[in-house]
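User: I've been trying to design a sequence by hand for this structure and keep getting stuck. Would you show me what you'd pick, starting by listing the structure so we're on the same page?

Assistant: Good idea, let's start from the same input. This is the structure you sent:
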């Protein structure tokens, strides 16, 4: 017996060791492949620029012309340098001015404060703003209001309305009332995350009271505002309409080996303890500048060099954009120790949200299955902060499969952009014009969709500019198909050991060093330390109070009068661009080496057999309901009892759903016609919205689990000629011309016409 046990354990150990070795091989292989591809792209770009550089000399073949080119370049470079220093001075002055004003939201729109969270029964530093439409834009109170929740991740609020082509701009131009959830820099004393959730619920009640004739508000959560939106929808499901999660992390251990290094941070830094130490040294406050610094370190070539070179090289056109962005990027906000502790324990280290282990507060669990509202998830392969794995894998952890999503009457749509980065999801004009505009359009019809899991696809545009049109389709997906897009998850077990280690260290810290540090640090000392943070020093370094900025500022006044905005490039300009590219590539190489070291170190420690065994107690996913139990659920049995009841309205919805089931794709224009029928044609128009949702839900379950019986019952539902005629006219309008139907859909349609004696 002992020998068998020893043999078994030994085999398990070596299997785990082989798996760890496989992880390391996969990570390094992918990283090497990616680095080679990146190198080839950079090499191609460098060769192309070098050819332009070489060809530029053809126009400067005499010493005189070379001398003139050199002097022209020196003059232009000197002027750009002076103007760049002037822009940096203005940025630093803006930084101090923005701080003095309390870092208000950077919205370009006027707004008014509707609800101040500081005055609520459980005070917090959040507030509800009503965005005032600009001149020429009409907002209709009966349309669905939008509530946008921006991330509180070190920065201030406003990035969702940072420019005209933004989430706010898209909603306003479509006539929707827009509200914005913003926050003050300083949290209220002893503020907890639960206080914020309850405040956001109070905000929604206020919005609903202001728009009694409109549907429930659509809530848009950006980045960290996304998981806050999901929690809000789970705790207060009756207050929330459709929710949109943009670049929102929900599955915190997920990612792809070889490319997503941010998730490894806690495993190599000691779990939660460094954060608690920082908060206690900060008199109970965690400094958001630390988070911003971490974001910058993910791409030092862009953040520490390219951003400033682009300002210098395009000083005539890039200054305003740079100043606007820096105003938001440099507005640092704070969290209480309690808030950040909850976030790390339950989300980023503990990963408890999708496992149904997170509690908003004692006795108040957060169950994502209780979300009744349709969910749209927007992620991008180009996002290295919230990759698609982190944005989508919670769906697989929460639901048994796509059938359970349908049984619960839920609609989940996801969309994956190919290249846009994390910030681009919120601030990119092209994304606003394309993705956010189509999401806004989809929100009008999403409640007419049959329950299920869909991938939203936007096809190539027709037309240009304001006349651009896009075709949208919704492709039915299984959870397994979705997981193929996000990748493998075997290495996630390594993070369970980190979570357990973090919990142990947290307990030791709270019972030893923590209480001592809390009594030793005053707010005055903490403020002084925060003022010396490298991010703050860098943001304020070029302010007018700096005596060394006097001469550049004086020179800039003269240069602005004589500087030529557009001038011919010399070979020295092309060489400057080549040099700039190579400096950025150098930074990128350092970043790649650091990421490789971090990933290999993490996998070497936490993917080792002892570490995996150590974390086994936390390495589990939410128990899933067996399919046989799903089929026995009351909701299914109640729906199946209605196979022969409901009359023409039930028959119409059932037929439309049956035809839709013959293909994996739902075209956007058909969905719009279906929604038009449900909301503007009688007798659907007179139905309560909840009643319409129940109707679609019941008919979806009948089509899914008893399609043949549902088909056979159609003549019973359409007994009179009047009902038959109305049903034929309605269904024909929804499905469109027969010549546009797929073969499988057309075949069923012909059978239906024969069975029901139509046409």
């Amino acid at each position: 017996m002992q020998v068998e046990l020893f043999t078994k354990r030994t085999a398990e150990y070596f299997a785990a060791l082989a798996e760890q070795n496989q992880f390391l091989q996969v990570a390094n292989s992918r990283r090497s492949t990616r680095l080679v591809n990146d190198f080839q792209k950079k090499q191609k770009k460098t060769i192309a620029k070098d050819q332009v550089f070489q060809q530029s000399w053809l126009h400067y073949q005499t010493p005189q012309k070379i001398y003139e080119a050199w002097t022209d370049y020196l003059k232009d470079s000197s002027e750009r340098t002076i103007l760049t220093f002037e822009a940096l001075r203005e940025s630093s002055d803006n930084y101090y001015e923005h701080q003095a004003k309390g870092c208000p939201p950077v919205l370009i729109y006027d707004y008014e404060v509707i609800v101040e969270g500081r005055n609520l029964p459980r005070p917090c530093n959040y507030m509800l703003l009503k965005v005032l439409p600009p001149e020429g834009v009409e907002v209709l109170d009966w349309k669905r209001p939008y509530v946008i929740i921006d991330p509180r991740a070190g920065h201030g609020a406003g990035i969702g309305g940072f420019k005209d082509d933004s989430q706010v701009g898209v909603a306003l131009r479509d006539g929707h009332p827009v509200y914005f959830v913003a926050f003050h820099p300083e949290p209220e004393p002893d503020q907890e995350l639960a206080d914020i959730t309850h405040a956001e619920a109070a905000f929604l009640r206020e919005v609903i009271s202001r728009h009694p004739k409109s549907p429930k508000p659509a809530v848009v959560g950006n980045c960290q505002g996304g998981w806050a939106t999901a929690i809000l929808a789970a705790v207060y499901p009756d207050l929330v309409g459709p929710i949109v999660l943009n670049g929102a992390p929900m599955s915190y251990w997920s990612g792809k080996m070889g490319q997503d290094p941010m998730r490894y941070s806690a495993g190599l830094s000691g779990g939660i303890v460094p954060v608690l130490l920082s908060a206690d040294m900060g008199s109970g406050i965690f400094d958001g500048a630390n988070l911003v610094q971490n974001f910058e370190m993910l791409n030092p070539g862009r953040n520490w060099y390219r951003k400033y070179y682009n300002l210098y090289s395009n000083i005539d056109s890039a200054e305003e954009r740079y100043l606007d962005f820096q105003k938001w990027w440099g507005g640092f906000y704070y969290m209480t120790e309690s808030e950040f502790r909850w976030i790390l324990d339950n989300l980023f280290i503990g990963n408890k949200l999708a496992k149904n282990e997170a509690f908003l507060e004692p006795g108040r669990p957060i169950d994502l299955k209780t979300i009744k509202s349709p969910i749209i998830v927007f992620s991008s392969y180009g996002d290295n902060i919230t990759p698609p794995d982190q944005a989508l894998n919670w769906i697989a952890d929460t639901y048994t499969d796509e059938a359970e999503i349908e049984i619960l009457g839920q609609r989940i749509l996801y969309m994956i952009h190919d290249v846009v980065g994390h910030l681009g999801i919120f601030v990119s004009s092209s994304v606003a014009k394309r993705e956010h505009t189509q999401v806004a359009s989809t929100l009008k019809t999403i409640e007419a969709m049959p329950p299920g899991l869909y991938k939203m696809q936007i096809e190539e545009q027709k037309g240009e500019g304001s006349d651009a049109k896009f075709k949208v389709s919704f492709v039915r997906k299984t959870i397994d198909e979705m997981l193929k897009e996000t990748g493998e998850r075997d290495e996630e077990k390594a993070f369970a050991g980190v979570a357990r280690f973090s919990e142990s260290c947290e307990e030791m810290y709270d019972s030893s060093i923590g209480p001592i540090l809390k009594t030793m640090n005053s707010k005055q000392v903490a403020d002084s330390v925060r003022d010396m943070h490298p991010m703050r020093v860098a943001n304020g370094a070029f302010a007018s109070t700096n005596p060394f900025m006097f001469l550049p500022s004086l020179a800039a006044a003269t240069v602005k009068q004589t500087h030529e905005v557009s001038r011919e490039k010399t070979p020295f300009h092309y060489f400057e661009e080549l040099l700039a590219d190579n400096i950025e590539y150098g930074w990128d190489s350092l970043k790649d080496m650091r990421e490789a070291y971090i990933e290999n170190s993490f996998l070497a420690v936490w993917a080792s057999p002892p570490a995996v065994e150590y974390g086994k107690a936390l390495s589990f996913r939410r128990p899933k309901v067996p399919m046989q139990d799903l089929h026995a659920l009351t909701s299914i049995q109640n729906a199946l009892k209605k196979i022969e009841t409901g009359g023409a309205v039930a028959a119409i919805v059932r037929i439309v759903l049956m035809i839709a089931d013959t293909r994996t794709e739902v075209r956007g224009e058909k969905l719009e016609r279906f929604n038009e029928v449900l909301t503007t044609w009688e007798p659907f128009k007179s139905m309560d919205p909840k009643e319409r949702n129940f109707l679609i839900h019941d008919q979806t379950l009948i089509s899914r689990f008893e399609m043949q019986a549902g088909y056979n019952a159609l003549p019973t539902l359409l007994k009179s000629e009047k009902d038959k005629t109305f049903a034929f006219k309605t269904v024909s309008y929804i499905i469109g011309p027969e010549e546009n139907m797929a073969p499988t859909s057309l075949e069923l349609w012909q059978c239906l016409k024969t069975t029901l004696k139509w046409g």
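That's my pick for every position. To get oriented when you compare it with your attempt: The longest helix spans residues 2-56. The chain has 32 helices and 15 strands.
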